[in-house]
Amino acid sequence: MRQIRFILISVLVLSLLLFGIGMLMPSRVVVSRAIDLPVAHTKVLPLLQNIQQWPQWMQGLDSSEVSMVNDSTFQLGKLRVNWITRNDTLLLSEWHPENGTVQISTMQLISIPGGQGCTVQWQFEQAVGWWPWERLGSMMNEKIMGPQLQTNLQRLSDYLLTTP
Q: Which residue of 15, 35, 98, 158 is surrounded by the most CB atoms within 10 Å?
């Protein structure tokens, strides 16, 4: 009986400790990358605004996976993308995976003064639930998504520099 009580108390204390550590972590995770491009933002904007152009520079995206649902909704394989805002400097969209947490994507175009090019800043923001395993698991977002964002931005740069 004494061992059972010890095990139950140990499990309770460990659970409270994990919950406490999880609550110290942020409830929103932001992964962001940026790249400076030596081209005008007017040349970059069509590649970002038109989802049909994404397979040109986005790794792992086949043009046959891209389909338009309506003016502001696209299907990318099993992922649905809803545009929230599209203007000359800001592209804001919601990414809805088939079974997962909705992420907010922000692509921002910042012109470099003097017409020397532009900076493309791309970030994903995700709300994280209060369960300890969700909060602790969110630490992997940077490790998984960061390199993907950087690779895609580099592919965008390469595409823009090799296409007249």
A: 35
What span, in angstroms and rounded, lies between the C-alpha atoms of 107 and 88? 11
| Pairwise CA distance, residues 59 & 57, whole Å | 6
**Rounded-to-integer distance, Cα 32 and Cα 146, Å:** 7
- Phi and psi for 91 in degrees, rounded to 5? -125, 110
Token match 């970002």: residue? 48
pLDDT tens-place string over residues 51-87: 888 888 988 877 777 777 887 888 888 888 899 999 9
**Going by CATH, does the domain composed of 27-162 fall within 3.30.530.20?**
yes
DSSP-derived 3-state class of residue 54: helix
Residue 24 DSSP SS3: helix
